[in-house]
Amino acid sequence: MRLKGATILIEELLRQGVDTVFGYPGGAVLDIYDELYKYSDRIDHVITAHEQGACHAADGYARASGKTGVVIATSGPGATNLVTGIANANLDSVPLVAITGNVSVNALGRDSFQEVDIVGITQPIVKHNFMVRHVQELEQTIKEAFLIANSGRKGPVLIDIPKNVQTDTCEYGIAVVPRMPDKPKLPYVKDKVLEAIRNSTKPFIYCGGGVIAASAEQEVLELSHRLDAPVGLSMMGRTALPDSYDYNLGMCGMHGEYAASKAQSECDLMLAIGVRFSDRATGDLNEYTKKCTVIHIDIDKAEFGKNVDPDFCLQGDVKAILQDLLKDLKGVRHPEWREEITEFKKTKTPDRPGEFCPKNIIEAVRRHMQDSTVVATDVGQHQMWTVQYYDFEQPRTLLTSGGLGTMGYGLGAAIGGCIGSGRKRTVLFTSEGSFGMNLNELCTVVSQDLPITIVVLDNNVLGMVRQWQGIFYEGRYSQTTLNRKTDFAALANAFGAKGYSVATLEELEKVLTETDTGDKGAYLIDCHINQDEKVLPMIPPGKSIKNIILKG
Amino acid sequence: MKRIYSCLVENRSGVLAKVAGLFWRRCFNIDSLTVGETEDKAISNMVIVSSGDERTLEQIEKQLNKKLDIIKVKTFDESEGISQELVLVKIRYNRDNRKDIMENCQIMGARIVDLSKSMMTIKMCDTPERVQMFLDTLKSIRIVELARTGTLAVTKIKEQSDEK
């Protein structure tokens, strides 16, 4: 079958199981969009307001659904607008295929109109990227791109397709099925690992995003039961275990729960599963693993010893390794350790009944949502509050920018997450700073008729940076007091959504009841909170649990 | 510490940039880097010499292995490999030092490959240490131009090894 490049692209997307793509048309992808028009009964294209929004949407779609997200952008500025979204997906190991157009091969290198070297630009922020110079390579390249994005440690792959490759024709259906190259794996002695586990009286499981990527949630839960081990989560590992599980201590690290960080520092054995020991999670590396043996389980060999030197490195699919270990592990009890944990759990940030504070707002919103509701966040204080206070019960229900910390991620992610979860009610927690960065995507929410509730924790300042300025810069609030006059409720109305502005829990409850309309309706609830609200606890950067700040 | 990374890579445009970019992004050193085709035209051999602490040297190998354009990475210390470097050095000489230079060339096994009344170009191909030793003998002389290939290396032959 002889087809032109653009048709091959769409045909191959279908073969890869893609039914939804996000993107924005332009000169260098006209042929691709012409094919999307013809294939519109089989493939949905979601047009966003900006390519960055499209890229975050594809990322959110992938996180919520577990499938590979696809984003299409034109050459030049279209391609460069993807950069933040690609970097975001890369640091959080999200499977994403980004397709960009480029000028024709014979116009490359001549500074042609809307020409950029997007392969060069994205080099350090992709798992892999391709430029397709001949239409004959296109089919094979797309197959490889999807394989690379969604195998091993997942990540973004970019394919740059010059315009003439889209219009040239060649035979389709001739490419071979690619395989990932076999690279040698680290060997490990299982008996030694089992012995270390059996010798432990204070085991602790530290669970990261790799557990969700490998769908190993049940295995981790079983391991926790079997070893009587409490579980702490990295931010990316949040949602791997239900919050209703009493030995789920919550997030560890800079803004983690006291009990989780404390248990991590007091344990004699840390089973670190699918984590990469980010500086935000570890703090002072010298203090971090002082008291414990570390068993690191990960699919990516390069993670072993990158930040923390483990005593045992178990490389491979997390699910398979855990299943294998579980075969030889009997149930044990550690009542003394359990008592210690119960004691740690008593140190908590105090409740503030009746106050219009982040915790109460988030909990109120939660009461109107389902266990399966997808929650997106932007980046900053509201993100930490959501991760701390929202009660997550099911995997893949939290979309948050972990590694890159991308303000402006949330709305696009919520759009993708909503679509990826079957257009069910989706919540976005954001703040006026983050929301201000990509609020243009409100038009996408409305035109796509997406049931998204946007909760703005509006404190009139860039809260997280302000908090640091308060603690580490003697209260010199440089450029963090926004005092903008934006009326977010009116803005939402202008976009065609419905906006509300609230300042008390009673008002909020009334609005939440009014907007509890199932899977229909886009709402924005602007919650005016105090500008001095802090994210606590806090372990200052580079410090340890000894330096934890519990009170503001 | 020094280590040599001999990588078989896809012979495609952009691969060198990818590898160089990796070293830049992860703050690894490149002491020298050479690239050339292998017996298979689709595959190039890239020999990178790097230095750093044990953790860094180990990370380099792991990060190189992650790159999908890199087919195979062999790592070895200088003592485990046969290393050679080629240098071309153009110098200005005079009647007083001409004899010394020629003697040194003879001792070190270097050859004069170009000559005029006042200048000569010397070629030397040897281990990186001996190349450096020879260049040190030229320190007092005015070097006009110098070109070095960087280290090329293969592992030493071990009988019964599983090498293909």
Short overview:
The complex is a heterodimer of chains A (552) and B (164). Chain A is an alpha/beta fold and 552 residues long.
Rounded radius of gyration of chain A (Å): 24 Å
Helix percentage range of chain B: 25-40%
Helix content of chain A: 25-40%
End-to-end distance of chain B:
29 Å
Reported by name, the CATH topology of the largest domain in chain B is: Alpha-Beta Plaits
Proper CATH architecture of the largest domain in chain B: 2-Layer Sandwich
Shape of chain B: elongated
Mean pLDDT score of chain B: 92
> What structural category characterises the helix and strand content of chain A?
alpha/beta
Report on this structure.
The complex is a heterodimer of chains A (552) and B (164). Chain A has 552 residues and is an alpha/beta fold. Chain A folds into three domains: 2-171, Rossmann fold (3-Layer(aba) Sandwich); 190-345, Rossmann fold; 358-528, 3-Layer(aba) Sandwich (Rossmann fold). Chain A has 24 helices and 20 strands. In chain A, strands 3-2-4-5-7-6 form a six-stranded parallel β-sheet, sandwiched between helices. Chain A has a six-stranded parallel β-sheet with strand order 11-10-9-12-13-14, sandwiched between helices. In chain A, strands 16-15-17-18-20-19 form a six-stranded parallel β-sheet, with helices on both faces. In chain A, α3 runs parallel beside α5 (83-91), α12 runs antiparallel to α16 (335-345) and α17 crosses α18 (381-389). The mean pLDDT of chain A is 96. Chain B folds into two domains: 2-76, 2-Layer Sandwich (Alpha-Beta Plaits), CATH 3.30.70; 82-153, ACT-like. Chain A, domain 2 (Alpha-Beta Plaits). Chain B has helices spanning 15-25, 54-66, 95-108, 128-137; strands spanning 2-10, 32-37, 43-51, 70-76, 81-92, 111-115, 119-126, 143-148, 152-155. In chain B, strands 5, 6, 7, 8 and 9 form a five-stranded antiparallel β-sheet that branches. Chain B has a four-stranded antiparallel β-sheet with strand order 2-3-1-4, covered by helices on one side. The chains are: A alpha/beta (552), B alpha+beta (164). The A-B interface holds A 119-120, 123-124, 127-128, 131, 148, 181, 183, 300-302, 304-306 and B 14, 17-18, 21-22, 25, 55, 58-59, 62-63, 65-66, 68, 71.
